[in-house]
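Ticket 4471: requesting a sanity check on a complex prediction with 5'-deoxyadenosine. Repro inputs:
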Amino acid sequence: MTRKVHIKTYGCQMNAYDSVRMAEALAPEGYEETDDPAAADLVVLNTCHIREKAAEKIYSELGRLRLLQNERRANGANMKIAVAGCVAQAEGEEIIRRAPVVDLVVGPQNYHRLPDLLRDGQKSAKAVDTEFPAEDKFASLPERARQRTPTAFLTVQEGCDKFCTFCVVPYTRGAEFSRPAADILEEARRLAGFGVREITLLGQNVNAYMGDGADGRGWTLARLIEALADIPGLARLRYTTSHPADMGDDLIAAHRDIPALMPYLHLPFQAGADRILAAMNRKHTAAHYLRLIERIRQARPDIAMSTDIIVGFPGETDAEFEETMQVVREVNFAQAYSFKYSPRPGTPASTMDDQIPEAAKSERLATLQSLLAEQQKAFNAAQIGRTLPVLLEKPGRKSGQLAGRSPYLQPVHVTDHGGEIGQIVLADITESSANSLSGVIISGTKETKVHINSAPPASGETAGTLLRQ
Ligand code: 5AD
Ligand code: SF4
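Returned structure tokens:
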């Protein structure tokens, strides 16, 4: 019997990856994916708990789903509702108490058990599974069945042992766990077999990766990247998200030595004042962060830096906020995410004295974001006149256009001169805006026809990618 499942994803890229894997776990049960919740026999909300706003969204969505469920029931059909992800993990049975419409609550470590839970749920009224199991959930999930886009996420590490005092992740995702390298390589080869050209390695603390190596030794993220770079067809590798304390020498060197490793790094620093960093339990100072960036730029001078910043952590003074601004000025980010501190139940910072008033947080965020927007605009504008390799990912918004990404992760819109999705073409960058670039394809339609000698050394990727063909 075919049934339909609608999965709605909130939050980070790891949730996006998990949603794909949930769909794959449900496929053998006869579930096909649908974009339309009204047509679904099962709706899964894959939730985010990182900030209060993100968690509250779930309850309003559940209110809307209750109406849809009533409509389906009136038409003689049913709709089960499951809550997965970090709200499921953090709130467990409380979700069913607050929203009785929910049939099933499943934490991120238990997606491989979804089919069983749904079957059990047919007998018992409601099912809740938020235990941290001993088994490796990835090993228990079915193999990746397909991938339609030339870019894919691949989770290599989950959980976090850092316990930043503002953050729920160590509680919702549990202790750090690294997948064995052999499993990751196998999944990456499958993805390459489906035509994937770019893989982003995911982990809450991805650069703390320490997995069983294919050679019986412990592998770092750098070693894993080196092995992945040898997989035929894979032209681009990225990883996210990193912690400054785990930025090992070998990983920095990988940015110099491995052409497939893209010149883009998301490295959160959160705050610029050492007193706040200590209260956040960040394990680095502002000077340590700045020195690290200097070393990374020595290894890869054109690297695009990205970060996460929190304003209004408890006790943050105006002068301390200014120190955050100073770090931003010194680094000059290509892009960044910035947030108002949001107290999360159960975290140490939520009960600290001197919580900052909302108005002050909003003001600081606006000041910070206008500086970050300026930096991003300038970084994009600096690409005009350059020739960049662009991985074509999808049709553009306007007809006659294709959309792809530069090595620096900027969206690039190019005129469609017969380039094909999945190809890496060279494009002359002609325009830039706050968030994207526009360009004209200058290479032949086939990558193999590109004359690499005439291409400017825009990035290490140019030669590496094209020689591989
Ligand atoms: N309040 C605001 N921002 C937070 N983040 C994590 N927890 C909180 C919180 N309680 C931000 C951090 C982190 C990103 C994923 O979300 O900057 O790096
Ligand atoms: Fe949260 Fe800190 Fe772990 Fe990042 S390193 S997931 S901010 S606890």
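Notes from triage: Residues 3-129 form a domain with the Rossmann fold fold (CATH 3.40.50.12160). Leaving this open until the requester confirms.
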